[in-house]
């Protein structure tokens, strides 16, 4: 087996098609197909199959993909042994994050690494569907991702560094009848008009569950996917919404109040995803350490830099 063949297999797994893998590898699609054909003959078993419009890996292909990642780790360690790749403080690190994480973390991360003479950063916002975050590790050294706790875990082809479990609170304007509550239960939300997300996105199901527990169907007045747009509507209007506790910077919304739910316990996991070999780079480790510290600070203050108005249970 040749390294180029293993890399072709990894790119197909990460990107879902031979054409996309070819673009990433800067070769033709026929070249990737030939690499996979030779690899499949060497392995003696099928490695890929068609899944709708995507090219997926068989169990044997996934096993070989995991082994290929270990090969890449070994190569990264070999490079690190001579010191050129691992210890260069000027080696830039690319970081992608979903929108609210980028707004909360990118500025402080840039400042912290500048103050400590850390690596330079290439920052990008990437608000993708949950299942598409792992593929971003093909293009970025560090990917800040989120997923619901009851969803499938991240694939074994990426390394996962947990940042936080972020609760989802009920957001209301400061003059709303619920703004003075320390906590809420679904029954408190009867008769409220909701800012929900577009149909098919995860928070829709959470709001529907709150309505069910309250004994009535939740009334959706607005469908807005971007939390900061939703926060602007809730702050000045009469509707309510679910908001992440730590990554919506309430300095921008002085009249927004977040009230925790006693039940159900809603939230999302915020994680750092990387390709395993990226963790062998000192610059990447420095960025991850900084992100963990910044997130811990947000968790410690409840995500609100202003004086706390409510006790978060």
What distinguishing features does this structure have?
3 domains, D-Maltodextrin-Binding Protein, domain 2, alpha/beta, two-stranded antiparallel ribbon, 9 helices, nine-stranded mixed β-sheet, 313 residues, Arc Repressor Mutant, subunit A
Order of helices and strands: HHHEEHEHEHEEEHEHEEEH
Per CATH, the superfamily of the largest domain is: Periplasmic binding protein-like II
Radius of gyration: 23 Å
Mean pLDDT across residues: 87
Poorly predicted segments: 305-313
End-to-end distance: 55 Å
Structure explained in plain terms:
The protein is α/β, with parallel strands linked by helices. It has 3 domains: 3-81, Winged helix-like DNA-binding domain superfamily/Winged helix DNA-binding domain (Arc Repressor Mutant, subunit A), CATH 1.10.10.10; 93-165 and 268-300, D-Maltodextrin-Binding Protein, domain 2 (3-Layer(aba) Sandwich), CATH 3.40.190.10; 168-267, 3-Layer(aba) Sandwich (D-Maltodextrin-Binding Protein, domain 2), CATH 3.40.190. Helix content is 39%, strand content 21%. It has 9 helices and 11 strands. The protein has helices at residues 3-15, 18-25, 29-43, 59-81, 99-115, 133-136, 202-214, 227-236, 282-300, and strands at 48-51, 54-57, 93-97, 121-125, 142-147, 159-173, 193-196, 219-223, 240-244, 256-259, 267-274. Strands 3, 4, 5, 6, 7, 8, 9, 10 and 11 form a 9-stranded mixed sheet that branches. Helix 5 (99-115) links the parallel strand 3 and strand 4 (121-125).
């Amino acid at each position: 087996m040749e390294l180029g063949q293993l890399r072709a297999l990894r790119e197909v797994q990460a990107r879902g098609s031979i054409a996309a893998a070819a673009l990433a590898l800067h070769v033709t699609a026929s070249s990737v197909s030939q690499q996979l054909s030779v690899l499949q003959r060497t392995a003696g078993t099928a490695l890929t199959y068609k899944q709708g419009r995507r090219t997926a890996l068989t169990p044997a292909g996934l096993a070989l993909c995991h082994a290929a990642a270990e090969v890449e780790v070994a190569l990264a360690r070999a490079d690190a042994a001579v010191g050129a790749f691992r210890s260069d403080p000027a080696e830039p690190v690319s970081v992608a994050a979903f929108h609210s994480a980028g707004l909360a973390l990118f500025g402080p991360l840039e400042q912290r690494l500048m103050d400590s003479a850390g690596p330079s950063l290439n920052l990008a916002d990437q608000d993708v569907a949950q299942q598409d975050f792992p593929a971003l590790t093909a293009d970025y050294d560090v990917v800040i991702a989120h997923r619901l706790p009851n969803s499938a875990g991240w694939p074994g082809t990426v390394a996962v560094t947990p940042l936080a479990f972020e609760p989802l609170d009920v957001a209301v304007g400061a003059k709303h009848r619920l703004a003075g509550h320390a906590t809420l239960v679904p029954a408190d939300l009867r008769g409220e008009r909701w800012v929900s997300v577009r149909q098919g996105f995860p928070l829709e199901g959470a709001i529907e569950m709150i309505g069910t527990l309250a004994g009535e169907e939740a009334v959706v007045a607005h469908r807005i996917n971007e939390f900061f747009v939703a926060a602007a509507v809730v702050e000045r209007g009469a509707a309510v919404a679910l908001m992440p506790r730590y990554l919506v910077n309430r300095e921008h919304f002085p009249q927004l109040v977040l009230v925790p739910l006693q039940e159900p316990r809603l939230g999302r996991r915020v994680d750092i995803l990387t390709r395993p070999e990226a963790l062998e780079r000192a610059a990447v480790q420095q960025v991850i350490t900084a992100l963990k510290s910044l997130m811990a600070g947000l968790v410690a203050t409840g995500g609100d830099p202003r004086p706390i108005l409510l006790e978060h249970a």
